């Protein structure tokens, strides 16, 4: 009895263990095996030979890979800031009491509920040049056929993808900002108003400093999500024309299935660092801001 | 300080508020869980039965009531439903064997993971040179099926390296240019023998009615563009060398025969043809973003005069517009190099292989025996609308039988390119055609050089 | 006066962005409710009809009923495991501040940034070794694992904001600390739990990347798999595809609408502090 009680009284020290155990089995163990593969020429079938860092060298010499790095970063540079800016503006807009607020909030969040792959297919149907919904709409309203292929033009297509992505996930960013806004005590704003601060000044000096935590969450999850973009591109352009809108995640998948398993895990590690660096920088920066304020 | 206090209060009250309302939610959740547990319970019971069966299988000593599960792994989406009904029939007639069909749209990728991890199907429709080389399939050279099969199909099923057959094709398929007979007749157009004549035809179609796409391609589905390379560009090589020698040349990367990088060679001529037709605006303007389905629809509705497709597309066209049946013409691809002939794909279709890791090859063969029975083959051929490879099966397979016979007489017969090096699939080649169309290669010679470079690189990677 | 103008402009903007968010659903509805004999690219239709045959046909041929059952089993199972394990771990991270806990937590957080594909082949081998292919339980474990780090992150942040006095009182009353967690702390976690349930529930419900490998049998397919296979098989029939998508999306959308109130609260509670 004594012993049992003693054990129970110690148990709380090990509460992280069940989660960590499960995580080790289904994530860390395969991960370590995968990292090991990145140093081999494993093709998914025959015996793997150790090749050192050849896969990494190969990666930086590959045209298509470098283009994919460019596409991925370009996408993230477009998508992550836009998601945050629009998410914040949406949140400011909805941070008032009005009839139907929760309905509006639900509606704006709704697109994020749906799998990006299926959403991508729906958008493809809407946006498809020549025969999509928007095209038909423009044609029947203006009477003129629009002869411009926005998904077939590589420099244009990437921005179409960015817009669709921002459209789908802006609700998610908004909700987190909204939560942050609602936690700001009203007295602060009232005090600001008494001091004669304008709306913009209040946002700059009262709202923003109080929002560091939600900003941190949004910035970091959006960086991670944007740099790992996959399904929406598959549905909208399939990476084309050629490889011009292919992202690194798609490249990794295609290489992994295309007999280059070892190589693809090496690329996945590179992608990990491409994600890690901006996340680390923004984390440090925002923490510093947090302390300053 | 006061602020901190207030937040705490807000948080606390929100707990309380949430608490009361949560009760209802919790009830709902509990109810949901119960439903799930019930449903799950039933599913589990069903699972246990199959598990029990699998267990039986592993103890091979019990011969009498042993139940064997045969996994059929396929990437052919169009036959899933038909195959299911044939499998039901087979399972009912063979109490000791259960055949299970598994479909994956990405079959050629998924099978790789299956091989890599040891979860190997017994029968599969996915057969590639790589896996043949690695001994993944059973040698089917001595099976009785071959006595009934067209010798030309047997040749196409033969692995050049070993001279054995690792796959059996139950059907043939043809690919070439489908055209709208009415449009051709109205304008008095003849079937072209060369690309220049073909462009002439297309220009006339365009001038006559700008609403109609002269030559429609669904370029978003890059396999379709890959086919153009396999049939038109490689067709130059294939018609010159014949089936076996072409395969050998691809496998050895024999540049004297392939001449991929040469100006005036197959790739350069192909690129020049595409560029020329593109600049004359003879393709649909959404060449790069249209899909296979768009292509089928456009042709069925009379909005496209010519498309490049195979027999597999017939069902879709006719379903979309049954009145189109009598209006479908079929012709070979026109010659793109001077002095060569038009070509038409006439190749194996619906090929099956038994894996060498299969624990039950005899049962797998038994199922193929059943599938290849003449009556089932008639059903199958009529369903997928392509002629049977079995000489004793005479199925009324397609409404454009005569057009196909006519086209087969007019062009040199060529096969698929199954010998691509593994890092350079037909799909990858199709993406190069997308780039070509998008203007990323300045000249046709640039395209040929790039093609040769990528082919060589991939070939070297897998032959070292 | 000026205030009214502002209000009016705000109203207009709010209505516009709401319509924008609903736009694809509207297009989907038009398609699903239009007889397939009507060719969409030739004739523009702006109002949905009351035509239900597409739904009936899509339901019949797509096997989506079974897919909904599979998705439900997997989602509820994975979310339950996820909530239990991550709330415990979150408590450990927030309250038992020793080095081991911190390191384990950081490892898991770091893994959030790793592209999942790196795991595919080794994980598949593992699944075969444990007999997990085509089973609900293995899929549940894999998906519960994938979302652990984010859940622990939310829980630890939230628990950190709860005054310690609440559990200390319980401990004085004779509860062990772990007992106090389940009896006193866990009930307080409802807001963040509902956020975890909704966020992870949706990503598990929508999971495609793992399901495509581990659930290969036709009778085991989940909704994303069933819909994407349906797209493959009936690619040209937009009307049926739209109907099938609507059937497949409905459970997620309705669940979200029912629970969204708790969700917003949970997000507020879980993400702002911490």
State the helical fraction of chain A: over 70%
Task: Please identify the top-level CATH class of chain A.
Answer: Mainly Alpha
User: SSE string of chain C, helix = H, strand = E?
Assistant: HHHHHHHHHHHHH
Poorly predicted residue ranges of chain A:
none
The rounded distance between the terminal residues' Cα atoms of chain C is 42 Å
User: Which class best fits the helix and strand makeup of chain C?
Assistant: mainly alpha
Oligomer classification: heterotrimer
Count of helical segments of chain A? 14
CATH superfamily of the largest domain in chain C: MetI-like
Number of domains of chain C: 2
Helix content of chain C: over 70%
Largest sheet of chain A: none
Biggest pleated sheet of chain C: none
Total count of domains of chain A = 1
Average pLDDT across residues of chain A? 86
- Helix count from the secondary structure assignment of chain C: 13
Q: Determine the strand fraction of chain A and express it as a percent band.
A: under 5%
Rg calculated over all Cα atoms of chain C? 23 Å
Number of DSSP-assigned strands of chain C: 0
Instruction: Report the span from N to C terminus of chain A.
Output: 53 Å
Features of this protein?
heterotrimer, A: 293 residues, MetI-like fold, globular, B: 464 residues, alpha/beta, D-Maltodextrin-Binding Protein, domain 2, nine-stranded mixed sheet, 18 helices, 13% strand, disordered N terminus
In words, what does this structure look like?
The complex is a heterotrimer of chains A (293), B (464) and C (274). Chain A has one domain: MetI-like fold (Orthogonal Bundle), CATH 1.10.3720. Chain A has helices at 2-11, 17-37, 54-61, 63-94, 101-109, 116-127, 133-142, 154-182, 186-194, 199-210, 212-227, 231-236, 248-257, 261-292. Chain A is globular, with a radius of gyration of 24 Å. Chain A has 293 residues and is mostly helical. By secondary structure, chain B is α/β, with parallel strands linked by helices. Chain B folds into 2 domains: 68-172 and 349-384, 3-Layer(aba) Sandwich (D-Maltodextrin-Binding Protein, domain 2); 173-347 and 401-462, Periplasmic binding protein-like II (D-Maltodextrin-Binding Protein, domain 2), CATH 3.40.190.10. Chain B has helices spanning 2-58, 80-93, 107-117, 129-133, 151-156, 181-186, 195-208, 222-241, 243-252, 255-258, 266-279, 292-300, 314-320, 361-371, 374-384, 401-410, 426-438, 444-462, and strands spanning 68-74, 97-103, 123-124, 168-180, 213-216, 304-310, 328-331, 343-354, 412-414. In chain B, strands 1, 2, 3, 4, 5, 6, 7, 8 and 9 form a 9-stranded mixed sheet that branches. In chain B, helix 2 (80-93) links the parallel strand 1 and strand 2. In chain B, helix 11 (266-279) packs across helix 18 and helix 12 (292-300) crosses helix 13. Chain B is globular, with a radius of gyration of 27 Å. The relative contact order of chain C is 0.15. The longest helix of chain C has 35 residues, at 238-272. Chain C has 274 residues and is mostly helical. Chain C folds into 2 domains: 24-62, no CATH class; 65-226 and 250-272, MetI-like fold. The mean pLDDT of chain C is 84. Chain C has helices at 2-32, 53-62, 64-95, 99-111, 120-129, 136-146, 148-160, 165-172, 177-188, 190-205, 211-214, 223-233, 238-272.
């Amino acid at each position: 009895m004594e012993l049992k009680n003693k054990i129970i009284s110690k148990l709380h020290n090990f509460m992280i263990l069940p989660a960590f155990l499960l995580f080790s089995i289904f994530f860390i163990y395969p991960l370590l095996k995968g990292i090991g593969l990145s140093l081999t020429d494993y093709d998914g079938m025959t015996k793997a030979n150790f090749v050192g860092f050849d896969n990494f060298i190969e990666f930086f010499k590959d045209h298509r890979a470098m283009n994919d790095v460019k596409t991925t970063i370009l996408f993230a540079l477009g998508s992550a800031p836009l998601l945050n800016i629009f998410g914040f503006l949406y949140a400011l807009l909805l941070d008032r009491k009005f009839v139907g607020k929760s309905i509006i909030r639900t509606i704006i969040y709704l697109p994020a509920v749906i799998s990006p792959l299926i959403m991508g297919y729906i958008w493809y149907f809407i946006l498809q040049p020549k025969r999509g919904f928007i095209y038909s709409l423009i044609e029947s309203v203006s009477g003129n056929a629009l002869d411009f292929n926005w998904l077939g033009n590589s420099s244009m297509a990437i921005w179409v993808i960015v817009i669709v992505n921002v459209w789908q996930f802006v609700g998610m960013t908004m909700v987190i900002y909204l939560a942050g806004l609602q936690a700001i005590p009203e007295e602060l704003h009232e005090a600001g108003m008494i001091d004669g601060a304008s709306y913009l000044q209040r946002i700059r000096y009262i709202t923003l400093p109080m929002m560091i935590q939600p900003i941190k969450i949004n910035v970091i999850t959006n960086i991670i999500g944007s740099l790992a973009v996959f399904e929406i591109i598959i549905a909208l352009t399939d990476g084309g024309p050629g490889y011009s809108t292919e992202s690194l995640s798609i490249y990794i998948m295609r290489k992994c299935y295309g007999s280059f398993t070892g190589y693809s895990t090496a690329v996945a590690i590179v992608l990990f660092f491409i994600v890690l660096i901006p996340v680390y920088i923004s984390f440090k920066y925002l923490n510093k801001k947090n302390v300053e304020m | 300080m006061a602020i901190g206090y207030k937040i705490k209060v807000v948080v606390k009250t929100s707990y309380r508020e949430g608490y009361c309302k949560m009760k209802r939610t919790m009830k709902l959740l509990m109810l949901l869980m119960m439903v799930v547990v019930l449903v799950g319970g039933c599913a589990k019971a069903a699972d246990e039965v199959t598990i029990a069966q699998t267990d039986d299988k592993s103890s091979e000593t019990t011969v009498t009531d042993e139940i064997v599960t045969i996994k059929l792994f396929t990437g052919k989406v169009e036959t899933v439903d038909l195959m299911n009904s044939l499998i039901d029939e087979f399972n009912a007639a063979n109490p000791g064997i259960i055949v299970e069909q598994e479909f994956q749209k990405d079959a050629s990728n998924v099978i790789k993971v299956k091989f890599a991890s040891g979860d190997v199907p017994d029968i599969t429709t996915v057969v590639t040179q790589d896996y043949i080389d690695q001994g993944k399939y059973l040698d089917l050279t001595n099976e009785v099926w071959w006595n009934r099969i067209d010798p030309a199909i047997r040749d196409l099923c033969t692995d050049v390296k070993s001279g054995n057959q690792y796959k059996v094709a139950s059907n043939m398929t043809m690919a070439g240019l489908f055209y709208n007979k009415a449009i051709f007749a109205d304008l008095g157009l003849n079937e072209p023998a060369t690309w220049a004549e073909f462009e002439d035809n297309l220009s006339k179609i365009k001038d006559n009615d700008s609403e109609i796409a002269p030559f429609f391609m669904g370029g978003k589905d890059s396999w379709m563009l890959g086919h153009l390379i396999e049939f038109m560009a490689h067709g130059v090589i294939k018609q010159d060398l014949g089936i076996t020698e072409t395969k050998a040349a691809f496998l050895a990367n024999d540049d004297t025969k392939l001449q991929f990088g040469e100006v005036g060679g197959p790739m350069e001529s192909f690129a020049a043809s595409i560029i020329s037709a593109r600049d004359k605006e003879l393709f649909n303007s959404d060449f790069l973003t249209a899909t296979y389905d768009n292509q089928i629809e456009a042709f069925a509705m009379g909005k496209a005069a010519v498309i490049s497709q195979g027999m597999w597309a017939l069902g879709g066209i006719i379903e979309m517009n049954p009145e189109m049946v009598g209006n479908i013409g079929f012709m070979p691809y026109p010659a793109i190099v001077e002095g060569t002939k038009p070509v038409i794909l006439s190749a194996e279709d619906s090929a099956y292989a038994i894996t060498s890791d299969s624990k039950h090859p005899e049962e797998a063969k038994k199922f193929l025996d059943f599938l290849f029975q003449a009556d089932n083959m008639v059903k199958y051929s009529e369903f997928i609308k392509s002629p049977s490879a079995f000489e004793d099966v005479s199925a009324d397979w397609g409404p454009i039988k005569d057009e196909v016979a006519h086209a087969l007489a007019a062009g040199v017969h060529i096969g698929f390119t199954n010998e691509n090096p593994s890092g350079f699939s037909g799909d990858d080649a199709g993406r190069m055609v997308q780039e070509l169309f998008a203007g990323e290669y300045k000249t046709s010679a640039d395209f040929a050089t790039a093609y040769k470079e990528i082919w060589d690189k991939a070939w070297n990677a897998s032959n070292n | 006066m000026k205030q009214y103008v502002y209000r009016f402009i705000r109203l207009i903007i709010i209505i516009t962005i709401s319509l924008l968010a609903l736009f694809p659903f509207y297009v989907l509805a038009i398609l699903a409710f239009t007889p397939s004999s009507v060719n969409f690219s030739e004739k523009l239709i702006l109002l949905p009809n009351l035509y239900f045959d597409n739904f009936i046909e899509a339901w019949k041929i797509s096997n989506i009923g079974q897919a909904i059952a599979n998705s439900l089993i997997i989602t509820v199972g994975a979310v339950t495991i996820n909530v239990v394990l991550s709330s415990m771990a979150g408590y450990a991270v927030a309250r038992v501040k020793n080095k081991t806990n911190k390191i384990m937590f950081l490892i898991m957080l770091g893994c959030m940034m790793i592209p999942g594909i790196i795991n595919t082949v080794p994980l598949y081998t593992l699944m075969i070794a444990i007999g997990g292919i085509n089973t609900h339980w293995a899929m549940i474990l894999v998906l519960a694992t994938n979302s652990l780090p984010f859940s622990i992150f939310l829980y630890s942040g939230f628990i950190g904001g709860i005054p310690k006095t609440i559990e200390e009182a319980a401990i004085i009353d004779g509860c062990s600390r772990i007992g106090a967690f389940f009896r006193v702390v866990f009930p307080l976690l409802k807001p963040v739990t509902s956020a975890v349930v909704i966020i992870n529930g949706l990503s598990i419900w929508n999971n495609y990347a793992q399901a495509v490998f581990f659930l290969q049998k036709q009778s085991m397919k989940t909704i994303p798999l069933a819909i994407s296979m349906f797209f493959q098989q009936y690619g040209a029939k937009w009307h049926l595809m739209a109907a099938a998508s609507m059937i497949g999306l409905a459970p997620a959308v309705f669940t979200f609408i029912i629970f969204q109130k708790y969700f917003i609260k949970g997000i507020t509670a879980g993400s702002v502090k911490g």
